[in-house]
Amino acid sequence: MKRRICTFFLLLFCCLLRLEAQENSYLVKVPSYAEGQSIASTVQQDDQRQASLSPGIRGASSEEGGVRDVLFYTMLFSTTVLLLLTTTLTIGRKRMRAINGELKAKNAEIRQKNHALKELHTRSRLQNEAMDEQRKALEEMNRVKDKMFSIIAHDFRSPLNTIQGVLNLLHLDVLTPEELKNMLPHLSQKVDHSISLLDNLLNWARTQMNGLKMNVIAFPLAPEIDETVGMLLQLANQKSIRIEKDIDPDILVHADPDMIQLVVRNLLSNAIKFTMPGGIIQVSTEQQNGLIAISVSDNGIGMSEEVIAKLFTQTGYSTKGTSQEKGTGLGLALCGEFVRRNGGNIWVESEEGKGTTFYFTVPVAEMVQEPSYS
Description:
Helices cover 67% and strands 12% of the residues. The chain is α+β, with helices and mostly antiparallel strands. The strands form two sheets. A five-stranded mixed β-sheet has the order 2-4-5-7-6. A two-stranded antiparallel sheet has the order 1-3. It is rod-shaped and about 180 Å long.
């Protein structure tokens, strides 16, 4: 549009200049002698005619020529001004475009810097969160380490001192057969507790050092549970606790048998620990969507919501049992770790005064057809 306006004014300006040039050419052209005589006679006739005209008409003709000249120069001036304005606006528009381009480039650069700053802030926040988690993990490991040293110094030393004292009495031959018979169950309980404690400590240490190797195979679950119940049957009999089983003998699971046996042993030990004398413990299985859910239920003292929240998250947390039995606080932590490594989950349901049920799942193994030998 601007180019069209400029072209129009240029053409108009050129036309005015051409008209002025033609008018000047009439005034400047030098005539020949014959033309001069003709022009002179014509001029004399015009002078006589103008002389015969009234003064008013001659003035009007003169004024008309002056008006024409004013209009011409006015149009010439206006055209020049318009050309200057158009040129100025065009230059200003180009400058504005250049400035806008620079502003857009700077805005894009600022956006890139802001994006980089946001990414840096996000990385810094993630690094701080990772450092906080590492700090918490180190604090937890230090706390557990102190707990382990306390357990080793006290819980191991006390049973060993008891056994050493009995052996010294036997060596001095000051114990009667009846007294020795009465002391054997107590000694057996001390030894069983020490062995269980040592197993938990060693297994926990192996998990922390990432040196625990898994041996995942397909195996029948019922024999492993039967063996574990047999190991703890004497401990249950000392509190007159009955252990009942409802295990499907045909179930095959895909897991590490040693880890599953340790989980069942820890859950049964806790059930015996927190069940009143004369209570009942139920071990059962149920198939659920490709998993086997194993439950260990008791009718003991139960737990509050506050205690349940600490079981699998706070390593080293332990309370005394119904007969003042002590624990390390590592058993349930190991259970949770081992169940997760075998692709299962563990949880608990409990009500104070009514009992507790622990559940954990393991994958079901595919049924493998035994090869036939002819």
